[in-house]
Amino acid sequence: MASFWSRSLPLAWVSAALMLAGCAVGLQPPSPAAAIATTAPAAATPVRVKVFVAAMFEIGQNTGDRAGEFQHWYERYWKDAKPIRVPGALQPVYCNADGVCGAVLGMGKVNSSASMQAILLNPAFDFSQAYYLLTGVAGTPPSRGTIGDVVWGTWLIDYDLGHRWAPEENTPGAPTFMPRKGYEDYRRFQLNPSLVGWALQLSADTPLQDSDSARAYRQRYPDAAARRAPAVGKGTHMTGDTFFHGPGLSKEAQYMAKLYGADDYVITEMEAAAITLVIKRSHGVERVMSLRGAVNFDQGNPRETTLAHLDPKPGETAGGFAETVGNIERVGSRMVDHIVTHWPQWQAGVPPR
C-alpha cells in the first residue's frame, strides 16, 4: 500500500476511502471478473512473465470508477485478460499476450508479501526471467519531495526492524532507534543501480499531471522542495507497517537511511522491502524496481500539530491523489513497455546503457 491508507495519510481520508471501498483495510471488493476467476490448470504451459506489476490496493472495481493504485495499469494492459485465481493471493493475477502480468497484493508487509509468495510459487507462471515493478502511493518529507512526485527506489529499508523506546527515556533530541542484530540480511536492500539508471533515463521527462488543490496545499509549507511542481526522482523508500508521522519520526527515518548507508529517505510506504525479500529468496533482487507517487507529506506544516495534520478538518486535506495515481502509471509504463519491446536485449539481464 501504499501510504494513501497508511502512514502519513489523514484519518479522515482513510475513513472516506474505506467507505468507498466498502471493505476492510487491505481488501478489495471482488469484481465480477474476480468472481468468475478460475485457477489455471497445473498441466497448462505456464505464462512466461516478462514484467510483473504489483499494486497494493484498489478502491472499487478495476475499471470504470474512482481509480486506486491498480486501475490505470489494468486499463492499459489487462482489460481483455482473463483473471487467474491464485490460492493464497489476495486478488487474481492478470496477464496479457506480451508477458506483462499484474495483481493487487494487499496493503502492509504481511498481506502483500504473502500474496507475492503465493504467486511466485504457483505453477501457472514462469518467473525465471521476470522483472518486478512494485508500485503504489506514498508519503514524502517536505524537505525532499512534494505532492505528485513519482520516485524510483534506490534502496529499500525496513522501518520496523530494530529497538525503539520512548523519547523521554533518552537523551533529549537523540534518535530513539537502534538496529537489532540478526536482521542484517533483510533490513535493507539496494536495488540494481543499472536498472534504476535505465528507469530514470526512460522516464525522467514524463509529463506529470497536477491539480489546483495540490498547488494550493503545497504553499502551506516553507520548504522549496515541497512548494515546487511534481517531478520524477529517486531515493530511499522506507517500508513500515508503523504509521509514523511528524517531523521527529521523519528525522528518525532519515537517520536510519544514513545509518544503513543508503541514499536520502524520500518515500514512506508499507510493502516494498517485504515483497523484495520474498522475491530475493526465489529469484534475487537484480530485477526488482520500486516506484511510488507522493500523495501526502509525512508531517504537518510548521503552523499545525501532528495530530491536526493526521486528522484534518473537511477541506483541509492535500489534493492530487487522482493525478498522482495516473502519474505513477505514466512513469512506470515507460519502463514496462521498453523492456517488453526490447525483450531480446533484456531477457538475460539488465543490458548496459
Automatic annotation (TrEMBL):
SUPFAM superfamilies named among the record's database cross-references: Purine and uridine phosphorylases
Superkingdom of the source species: Bacteria
Signal sequence extent: 1-26
Alphabetized PANTHER family for the sequence: PURINE NUCLEOSIDE PERMEASE C285.05-RELATED
Protein name, as recorded: Purine nucleoside permease
Phylogenetic placement of the source organism: Bacteria, Pseudomonadati, Pseudomonadota, Betaproteobacteria, Burkholderiales
UniProt keyword terms in alphabetical order: Signal
Naturally occurring in which organism (per UniProt): Hydrogenophaga electricum
Keyword Signal applies: yes
Listed Pfam families: NUP
